[in-house]
Amino acid sequence: MRPIVSGQNSLRNPLNDLMGTEAHVRILRVLANEVDGSLTASNAAERAGLTVPGTHKALKSLLESGFVLRVGGGRKHQYELRRSDKLVIAVLKLFQSERERFESLIGAIKDRIVKLVPYARAAWIQDFPSEFGDPMILGVLHETKRLSNYIQRMQKQLYEVERAFDLTIEVHGYTKADLPNLEPDKVSPLYGVLPFPDKYNREMYPTPLTHEERNQRMLEVSHKLTEAIEHDSSLVRRAKEHVQRMLKSDHGSATKDIEEWRDILESYSIRRVSRFLISTSERANRLRQSNPLLAILNSDERNRLLNDLGGEQ
User: Fold this and answer.
1) 204 pLDDT more than 50
2) DSSP 39
3) What integer best gives the mean pLDDT of the chain?
4) The domain over range 97-196 is classified in CATH as 3.30.460
5) Residue extent(s) of CATH 1.10.10.10 domains in the chain
């Protein structure tokens, strides 16, 4: 039995075609949020988590609708949004609101975590809801004698967040003895140094014995970030938006550094940002520890950066 019993014309109801399938939405989200400009079909497929044939099919439909443009020629076809279209402008705002809602949720959870003492050793999002109504699962690492009480207090702290976002949040507590094998591309860090494999911790959460060693590790990461932003300038735009959202709430002593990053990202060219990232000046060394370009990387981008670092060692 078909759920649709009558047709609608595409001129009056173009959103039926524009956002008609999840593949359409995923591709539009990538083109709206993750790039400034165009993408090949294979790159769009990788970023959207789709098969290449499925991406080609969705892009064909979006091209026919007129909301996506094809640029280039031959085997170098690339695709970009028709950003001048009124509906596309509205969709861009919708995806921005979607992103801001998610970051607001994560910020609210982090705020609760940092208020609970004695502090956990680490906290992370262990599992996202796959469907509406499913719970979000948080993982927490703590000392055995404190874990049970901490979990109870954390669950109470999260009641307000659950109500605000109409979301069920479950907290799973672990000690070192019963900690599951966490994979970097399957979980999202919230607090502390996560118990990932040694290589991941060394590169993303360096805790060297000396200040000089810590600066050197972060400088290596910064060199890879300069390559990333020269290849994809949308990373700078995403970092600007991230910093702007962060400044909407109080971050205590960290606010000054966040404001400095805002000024840098808004006033520097891509070239100047790249040079600042790999500078060894006192200011660059200080701000490198709170680099928003590192914070906005998604799991795939973060893993590529780590793999590049690992390949040089």
Assistant:
1) no
2) B
3) 84
4) yes
5) 15-84
